[in-house]
Design a protein that fits this description.
Chain lengths: 156, 89
């Protein structure tokens, strides 16, 4: 881990918040699982999960490359206790409004912290090879290595 | 080439919901539109990942550009979208 980058993605993901062999019956089921992991990480209050479902019903958080980034509404920010990311991988895929989702990255962010987070995350996923590697990741180390690479890109 | 510079009105910037709505609208115009941040980084406006990667906050200026038939109409409609607070809808 490198010094100096205060909001590195990898600093916000606890090892216990990476679950690489999950299964969900539906999109909402997956969002509840993501919410549960954020809850266990101490990042949110339970009401944030409802805000995540509300956001998803308003506009899909599917971003392409088999990845969705569920997060709460603006009003749901009050239920965020600390910034955190969780990574849940679904090897069998989930039907996410007609899209095949393999990885759900849950986001809890106070204030405007999410803009920088989303920017770093999107920068990783814009690289098709990295996106594929994330969809196929089976160890925490792989996930950390992929998300760390965005910090280097930002330093240019 | 048609070009417009606009200030992002959404109170939380161009993140997930506004970025989704914006990139969907850009795709619907049927015209390839380029979105450029104040820092000079350019992406395909119809790519949500591209739009998110720019990390554009509230009140920041962006430039939209497009070429060919329908470029002006496409940019006008997208400028109107960016002038709207998409978080409030």
């Amino acid at each position: 881990m490198t010094d100096g980058s205060p909001a590195a993605l990898t600093d916000l993901i606890a090892p216990e918040s990476i679950r690489l062999d999950e299964r969900a019956a539906s999109r909402d089921d997956a969002i509840r699982q993501v919410g549960q992991v954020l809850l266990e990480a101490g990042a949110i209050e339970e009401s944030y999960v409802d805000a995540m479902l509300e956001r998803e019903n308003s506009v899909s958080t599917f971003v392409g490359e088999g990845v969705a980034i569920p997060h709460g509404t603006l009003a749901g920010k009050e239920s965020v206790k600390k910034d955190a990311l969780v990574v849940l991988r679904y090897p069998e895929g989930i039907d996410w409004d007609g899209n095949d989702v393999r990885v759900a990255i849950g986001i809890a962010a106070k204030g405007n912290g999410h803009i920088a987070l989303l920017s770093q995350l999107a920068t990783v996923l814009l690289d098709p090879e990295k996106a594929e590697a994330l969809r196929n990741a089976t160890t925490n180390d792989e996930v950390y290595a992929l998300l760390e690479s965005s910090d280097e890109d930002d330093a240019e | 080439m048609a070009e417009r510079t606009v200030t992002v009105a959404s109170s939380v910037g161009l993140h997930a919901r506004p970025a989704s709505l914006f990139s969907q609208a850009a795709a619907k115009t049927g015209v390839p539109v380029t979105l450029t941040s104040a820092a000079g980084k350019s992406v395909n406006a119809a790519s949500i990942l591209g739009v998110l990667s720019l990390g554009i906050g509230h009140g920041e200026e962006v430039t939209l550009s497009a070429e060919g038939d329908g470029a002006d109409a496409a940019l006008d409609s997208l400028v109107e979208l960016l002038n709207t607070d998409l978080d409030k809808q």
